[in-house]
Amino acid sequence: MCSTANNAEQPHASSDPALLLELQTRRPPSLMGRAGCETWSVDFSPDGAWFAWSMGHGIVWVVAWPLDSEDSQSQEADRGDKSFSCGHPVWGLAFGPRPPKSASAAQPAKTPSKGNSRLLLATGLENGVIKIWNVLTGEAVFNLHGHEGVVRDLVFPQNGTLTLISSSRDKTLRIWDLSQKGKLVQVLSGHKDWISCCCVSSDCSMIASVGRFDRMVCLWSLRSYTFIRNLTGGTFKTLYLQSSCDFSPDGALLATAAFSGSSWWIDLWDPYTAEKLATLVDYFEDYGQNQISAIQFSPNGLHLAIVTDDRALRIWEPGKKEMMMQTKVDRDSNGLCCNYHPQGGVIAIGTRDGNVRFWRAPRAVPSLCHLCRSTLRQSVSTHQVEPLPLPKRILEYLTYRNIREHLKTCCSSEEEDWKIKR
């Protein structure tokens, strides 16, 4: 068994200026580089006071955030860090419940919320079992059985309930009610192969899931537990794989990521109309050496984080041709997953060697137009916006149809190392 101790290191001078720190695992040399050591999932708690990552070999480590606070530097302070031994490799994890966005917009806590006995951590295992943990006590609450393959992704909707959605390599999504000791509410079937990722819209009306090999982007109703539509459809001659998806914070956009032997791309969809609004494409010369692993919208919806093989992190502002930020070219970065801190400014990247890197993400003050659009679109669908008696330009802005006017394709330049455009 590997040691569960963690080691926080400051970045070296030669590292990217945007790299804040790195958490490294300590394990016997015999386990280094062996299958099972990967960090497949990372997550921040809804209040930002805890951070969890699957550090390989069935171990999940939960640490108090921030790591470099005055309290954490004091040897006398009880940080409350803990590890969970799951017995099998952990592929997905998620904190819950997730309160509504308006309730979680408060300032981040300076110390972990010790009294939040309701904070749970769900861990999806390689053997198909989902283990539910009490973060405060560190005890296992119960196990969820039903999946017949790797549980690849877990998500709690942002409505404060103890509903949990899981996706698996057994081609199904399952909906669980943790308030009833993990009762299985519904099984969603329709994918023809492994499901890579799933996400839930901010109004908790839709679930999106992407199939790695069947190349399906499926939308499901979280209210009626029914299939809505497949956003791709048709027959494709080019072989490619789907890897990730994420709803924008207002639920009006769905981003999906895919890659082939010579390129990766991100599609932006209107989930209500099934219209593809824009596509960001990156081509590269080395065949099969640049897959895209994960994407996630920033908490304010202005940016999209991108994790690929050739760079640890890119930050893209939808609608722009160039990257808002991109780290140095690094073929050894091997990023697998990413997650923004709830208040933004920091993004965590889990790597293939079981470590986690924390990067400084661009901060931007949303415009009044963006705030108005986000507020409106959280509760109003595209079908409800279109009939409004508004000028065409305003309707295009509210429905994000103005994006494609500015976007064609993007080819990353190796001459540009890290930078943040202002």
From TrEMBL:
Biological process, per Gene Ontology: intracellular signal transduction; protein polyubiquitination
Keyword Aminoacyl-tRNA synthetase: no
Per-repeat ranges for WD: 144-186, 292-326
Superkingdom of source: Eukaryota
Keywords from the named record: Repeat, Ubl conjugation pathway, WD repeat
Pfam families (UniProt xref): SOCS_box, WD40
Ranges of residues in domain SOCS box: 365-404
Pathway(s) the chain acts in: Protein modification; protein ubiquitination
SUPFAM superfamilies in the record: SOCS box-like (SSF158235), WD40 repeat-like (SSF50978)
PANTHER family: WD REPEAT AND SOCS BOX-CONTAINING PROTEIN 2, WD40 REPEAT PROTEIN
The protein, known as: WD repeat and SOCS box containing 2
Native species: Mastacembelus armatus
